[in-house]
Automatic annotation (TrEMBL), chains A, B:
PANTHER family: 4-NITROPHENYLPHOSPHATASE-RELATED, HALOACID DEHALOGENASE-LIKE HYDROLASE DOMAIN-CONTAINING PROTEIN 2. GO terms for molecular function: alkaline phosphatase activity; metal ion binding; phosphoglycolate phosphatase activity. Substrate binds at residue 227. Keywords: Hydrolase, Magnesium, Metal-binding. Gene3D superfamilies: HAD superfamily/HAD-like. The keyword Hydrolase applies. Its EC number is 3.1.3.41. The active site is at 27 (proton donor), 29 (proton donor). Its cofactor is Mg(2+). Pfam families: Hydrolase_6, Hydrolase_like. This is 4-nitrophenylphosphatase. InterPro entries: HAD-like_sf, HAD-SF_hydro_IIA, HAD_sf, PGP_euk. Mg(2+) binds at residues 27, 29, 252. The lineage of its organism: Eukaryota, Fungi, Dikarya, Ascomycota, Pezizomycotina.
């Protein structure tokens, strides 16, 4: 595989690169911002792309936020965007459950491990669920819980799916409950399986980390509805009807964003160095995942 | 490998099998009891072995209990045993940290993910620690925690080890804190890595499950001080000075107990069918881990 092109400072190279694509799929955390820190010239760069007639889609694995939450985040950050341009892993999971998996009722309820973003998107797709942010599950496990989970009296017989996402309120009671549903045959889904979450210029445990306990206990991986799973690409394409050869994925993580674009046979991939992956990882001999091009920061595309 | 011998109901077979060994290492959960349910004839079986002059050692991966806690459990269950016969994974970890790892001070403090059993054994070995059952860590993560963990102001500079065990009070704050220590180079240890915990005639997430989030986030396994890690076998042997060829490991889990005995080159291994592993798993063609013999329940050794 040829070396990726470094576009920072290369005005002609940038112009040529941008001309190849009509659609840009953007990762958000680590690309547009890190936590509440907006990277320089992001709004101007997106504006430049829009002015050239490019379609922008914000494809994010962050399952704690719904599309509506994300719109608020864009507003707060001063980045023009509309809700329809946002495609999050929670939405992807809700679409998968409601429109593709379509388990027959009544055993089609979801047990949610995660935050309100998942609940909002399930609501939007008319999927019923328990768990999630319900205060009844935000407590320590008690001795009687072991008995009632084991004999099933504390379980909802209608649960047929466990959906695991990033959960800032993970606890043993929720893990044990989800594990019981999985042992009883529930379908095991994950919004995404990112090992880490970039926050405050550092890394914190990601959705893959908060779901790893369940994976370990049940001994199998969840079907992921986030990057780099192509289930998510299919859903994005289904909604936006783009030409893959004229589409570019922009992201900071080789093993999620760039992998997602390569496996999806997109026309191009662009790495930014403001997030998780370092350029040494893709410039190294025999690197498993190599972007088509890279910039130090997204704002470098302004030239 | 030859088929394991089924000893249940085989009086002569049992006598011959027992005569080969001077020392029996017992797993506890799933062998002697399941949760608070004592399997039939356990006390009588252990008494029979003692009357034949056998040394008994209770080698348990349950890190939530100290040896003293385990002694209480034996008393409650009506099984004669003394504290010195108990060798738990928390004790194993404390011994490893204090006597083998011996990090130079002051950066040799332990951040504990787990219950009081770990703390008691660290205390017994004079190892200083934070985390564990400290109520300061039993709360939700707040926005300022991300900042203070990322910039290190919420971290203890003397922590050089993260020790992960079964934690019924696992939460995101503790995982994020441990992950920060690991990113700063702390040694990553686990009391044990059992995926599940047998309780109330069912399975619940085990120590390997509550620690899996950290493994996923940091991208490497912890060094385990529980079965089947031979670090634990070395510690047991160091204490009890037994002849491995005259020692038999008795357990319910192929991938921990039986593996532990086989890798430790013990004279024999005996599986019981009252716990996690089913006989179909070791009777199958090409089974990876096969015990020397098995009984349906431990009490079958009474003949």
């Amino acid at each position: 595989m040829s070396q990726p092109k470094h576009l920072t400072g290369d005005k002609a190279g940038i112009e040529e690169f941008l001309s190849r694509f009509d659609v840009f799929l953007f990762d958000c955390d680590g690309v547009l911002w890190s936590g509440d820190f907006l990277f320089p010239n992001v709004a101007e760069t997106l504006e430049m792309l829009r002015s050239k007639g490019k379609q922008l889609v914000f494809v994010t694995n962050n399952s704690t936020k719904s599309r509506a939450d994300y719109k608020k985040k864009f507003d707060k950050m001063g980045i023009p965007a509309n809700t329809e341009e946002v495609f999050g892993s929670s939405y992807s999971a809700a679409v998968y459950i409601a429109r593709i998996l379509k388990l027959p009722g009544p055993k089609n309820k979801v047990f949610v491990l995660g935050e309100t973003g998942i609940e909002q998107e399930l609501d939007a797709e008319g999927v019923s669920y328990i768990g999630g942010t319900d205060p009844a599950f935000r407590r320590d496990i008690e001795p009687e819980d072991f008995t009632n989970l084991a004999n099933g009296s504390a379980l909802d017989p209608d649960v047929g799916i466990v959906l695991s996402g990033l959960d800032f309120h993970v606890n043993y009671l929720k893990l044990a409950t989800a594990f019981q549903y999985l042992q009883r045959g529930a379908v095991f889904l994950a919004t995404n399986t990112d090992s880490t979450l970039p926050m405050a210029h550092s890394l914190f445990p990601g959705a893959g980390s908060s779901g790893a306990g369940l994976v370990k206990a049940i001994g199998k991986e969840a079907l992921s509805l986030g990057k780099p799973s192509q289930a998510m690409m299919d859903a994005v394409e289904g909604k936006f009807q783009f030409d893959r050869s004229r589409t570019c994925m922009v992201g900071d993580r080789l093993n999620t964003d760039i992998q997602f674009g390569i496996e999806g046979k997109l026309g191009g991939t662009l790495a930014v160095l403001t997030g998780v992956s370092k350029k040494e990882e893709f410039l190294a001999e025999g690197a498993p995942t190599v972007p088509m091009a890279y910039v130090d920061t997204l704002g470098d595309l302004l030239g």
